[in-house]
């Protein structure tokens, strides 16, 4: 089933409202995509595949990577599913190694962050925390967001900046 950017953001919002965070595996399953955590070497991140024989999409993710990284990887592959649907069907697969060009990868990362931290939901959360875009975002709040949305602090920081909140530094710890 082909879905638009808005469709997947709406699914993400409804997942958040049901469970308190965006369940990317449930999102995939609502789209008819099967997700497998696989034993692979460390340089394998994730991949989306299409089987013509079964007319079925699959997302594979490295089971040894941290949970937040796996979630981001699955969201990234879901973004490819939305953006590069026909290409995956034609090529049979797409991944960071042999998949898209730099721009496609960048766009997939961007949509992945939007799926994990939907615009309205992040803004509501920031309002609840009594923070607006004129204030300097402190590290403690990045940590809270990272825990709430189950993303890395780096992803939380970049997403906030994209939404025009002021985060003056990145802590990689
Ligand atoms: Zn990719």
Describe this structure in words.
A four-stranded mixed β-sheet has the order 1-3-2-4. The protein has helices at 5-19, 24-30, 67-83, 85-91, 102-116, 119-128, 139-149, 153-162, and strands spanning 34-38, 46-51, 56-62, 93-95. It is globular. The model has no long low-confidence stretch (mean pLDDT 92). It is of the alpha+beta class and 173 residues long.
Q: What is the CA–CA distance across the termini?
A: 39 Å
Q: In CATH's first tier, which class of the largest domain applies?
A: Mainly Alpha
Biggest sheet record: 4 strands, mixed
Structure ligands:
zinc ion
- Quickly give the structural class: alpha+beta
Tell me the fraction of residues in β-strands, as a range: 5-15%
Radius of gyration: 16 Å
**Tally of strands:** 4
User: In which range does the helix fraction lie?
Assistant: 40-55%
CATH topology of the largest domain: Arc Repressor Mutant, subunit A
- H and E order: HHEEEHHEHHHH
Count of discrete structural domains = 2
Low-confidence stretches: none
- Average residue-wise pLDDT: 92
Spatially, the strands of the biggest sheet line up as: 1-3-2-4
Q: State the shape.
A: globular
How many H/I helical runs?
Answer: 8
The oligomeric status of these chains comes to single chain
CATH architecture of the largest domain: Orthogonal Bundle
């Amino acid at each position: 089933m082909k879905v638009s950017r808005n469709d997947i953001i709406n699914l993400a919002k409804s997942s958040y409202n049901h469970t308190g965070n965006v369940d990317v595996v449930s999102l995939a399953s609502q789209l008819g995509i099967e997700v497998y955590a696989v034993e692979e070497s460390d340089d394998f991140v994730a991949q989306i595949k299409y089987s013509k024989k079964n007319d079925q999409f699959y997302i594979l993710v490295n089971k040894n990577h941290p949970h937040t990284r796996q979630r981001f990887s699955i969201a990234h592959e879901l973004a490819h599913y939305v953006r590069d649907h026909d290409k995956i069907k034609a090529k049979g697969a797409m991944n960071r190694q042999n998949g898209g060009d730099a721009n496609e990868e960048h766009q997939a990362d961007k949509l992945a962050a939007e799926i994990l931290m939907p615009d309205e939901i992040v803004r509501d959360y920031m309002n609840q925390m009594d923070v607006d875009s004129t204030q300097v975002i402190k590290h403690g709040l990045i940590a809270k967001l990272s825990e709430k949305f189950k993303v890395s602090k780096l992803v939380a920081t970049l997403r906030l900046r994209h939404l025009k909140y002021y985060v003056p530094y990145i802590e990689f710890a």
